[in-house]
Amino acid sequence: PHISKMSKPKVVVTRQLIDQAQALLDSRNDLDIVQWNSEKPAPREWLLENAKDASGILVMLSDKVDEELLAAAGSQLRTIASFSVGTDHVDTAALKKRDIRLGYTPTALTDAVADLTVMLILMAQRRAGESMGKVLKGEWPQMPWHPLLMTGPQIGGSTVGFLGFGRIAQATLKRLLPFGIKKVVYLTSKPGQPAKEDHFGLLENPSIPVEPAENWEQLAGESDVVVVGCALTPSTKHIVSKDFFMKMKKMAVLVNIARGPVVDTNALVEALDTEQIFGAGLDVIENEPNIPADHPILKQPRCVLLPHIGSATIATREQMAEESVENLLAGLKGEAMVNEVQL
Ligand code: DGY
């Protein structure tokens, strides 16, 4: 039977995708595809306008999925596919209320982000940003090699505290074990209780102590390295606060690979200023990407700040793109997604 263009389900895609994923999408002649074909984020007005009558929307973490968008789309909307592991940009309660499914990509990026986490730990402990800064400014001639030049703490023997102990944290632990870390403490939404999932078979018979912390005070106080890897929720916002830094060891470093607002930036700047902690490695920060050159965090030589590139390997981004399209299509057909958030 003839299917008119009007009867094709409409899908909205808020960014240009990558090779295979784009080809998979383009091959779907049975869909009415509306795509923001750019590397830049789709303007909110464009999304609100084009969401009307959509059955599915593929979003980036920069697109807010809220009541306003769902209302603009209409009651036929069946599925949202997010090109991300984080879902703090999505009002999950609003989706649940309307019976809209949510796909995401929690497994595709684990290795890439865990690799970057190790890099940030080492960069923070070994003063990589500070050292490179001096070389780039031509200051090396004024600082010839000497025994204490640019010395910092060592990863071997460190106690590592994970705030959030999901896939990425556990994949980071796997990478850190060969460095000879001494102990791991972790805090989840269930303090004092063993982790819900053992993603890589590391927790049953660990070669070093791997223990749940009773509270954040214990985690902050014991750790030489604090890794923030938890989801951003109302209860984790600013959990790394002035009080948290006050409890940290003076030689400890903080690494955030999760979401900026988990860490209170003003408190971090103060902790670095007053040498309350040794250093920091951040892949995310509050108000990103709006960090102007005169932002106080950029005046901190012991802070490495990257522009949210944790999952930015070519292979990982390709896989995230493909899984996002697969989730979108599965959502339209009522089939199983690669990964779906249980709302
Ligand atoms: C995510 O997926 O949530 C990361 O922040 C970017 O890959």
From TrEMBL:
Domain of life: Eukaryota
Keyword entries, A-Z: Oxidoreductase, Signal
Keyword set includes Transcription: no
Residue span, D-isomer specific 2-hydroxyacid dehydrogenase catalytic domain: 11-341
All residue ranges annotated as the D-isomer specific 2-hydroxyacid dehydrogenase NAD-binding domain in the record: 118-310
GO molecular function: glyoxylate reductase (NADPH) activity; hydroxypyruvate reductase [NAD(P)H] activity; NAD binding
One cellular component (GO) term of this entry: cytosol
The keyword Transit peptide is assigned to this record: no
Protein family membership: Belongs to the D-isomer specific 2-hydroxyacid dehydrogenase family.
Name used for this protein in its record: Glyoxylate reductase/hydroxypyruvate reductase
Organism of origin: Periconia digitata
Organism classification: Eukaryota, Fungi, Dikarya, Ascomycota, Pezizomycotina
Residues of the full protein shown: 107 to 449 of 449
